[in-house]
Structures are given as C-alpha cells and as structure tokens.
Amino acid sequence: MSYVSLPEVVIYTDGACSGNPGPGGWAALLIYGPHRRELSGYEAHTTNQRMELMAAIKGLEALKRACSVQLHSDSAYLINAFQRKWIAKWQRNGWLNVKKQPVENQDLWKGLVALTEQHQVRWVKVTGHSDDELNNRCDFLARQAIKDNIGNADNDGLD
Length: 159
Hints:
Largest sheet: 5 strands, mixed
Structural class: alpha/beta
Low-confidence stretches: none
Helix content: 25-40%
Order of helices and strands: EEEHEHHHEH
Shape: globular
Mean pLDDT: 92
Strand order of the largest sheet: 3-2-1-4-5
C-alpha cells in the first residue's frame, strides 16, 4: 500500500462583529511553504460566532486539493466543537444540543463538517489579542472588512 503525503497548509482565522449581532467580518490567512494568501469578507447582519465559523469555512474552501491542515483560531466555540467532539454528539442527536434544542449555526457547522471530510484538519487554539502575529493579522483583516463596509466602525465595539 502506498501513501501519498498531503500538502501541508497552515491556516489562521478570526471573526469580528460590531455589536453582537451586527455587522461582521471574517479573515483567513493561508500559508503553504513560502506562499501566503489573505482572505477576508463582510456580512451586514451576523454574530461573532458565525464570523468565526465563516473564517474557517472560507480558509478551507480556498484549498484546491486535499491537504493536511493546521487550523489556528482564538475561538473556543470553534476549536472545542472539534477537539471535544461536540459535533459528533450533535450529529448523533440529530443536531440537538445537550438541552435538546437545535444547535445554533447548523448551516455553517454542516458546511464546515463537509470541508473537514476533504482534508486532514488539526485544530489549534491560540490566545486571542496576544502576541501571536498571525492571529493579530487576521483580527486586523476581519475588523478592516467591517470598517471598509460601514465606514468608521468604533474599534471598541468590535468583538
């Protein structure tokens, strides 16, 4: 049996929201060897959690073939869902949480699950708003996406 080694990609992601809910931005930074690509986007009415998920989705969607991915995020919501196997429990329970209520953001979770089936993803939790240069860059890009679309957004109101 032969094994094909997958390209190794590092992805950093972040989401931001001005108000929660409110206008939101997401960003993903992809690194493959010496190559670096920055992505960002905006939604007029969303939540911070949706932007965190959207950043991961857009980062994985940008990959052109199956890859081995280290996906870094400061979102405990995102990272814990995979590391603590919340998603597997939600799927077994028909997308109901422990309180027997529908899991929030199911549309995005289902899309993200489908993407993780195409790649080998290792989820890495980073400390937000710290000295992690790449996480800080994603934070800047996500906030900038909001500012570019709503004018002078108040930085203090961005989550």
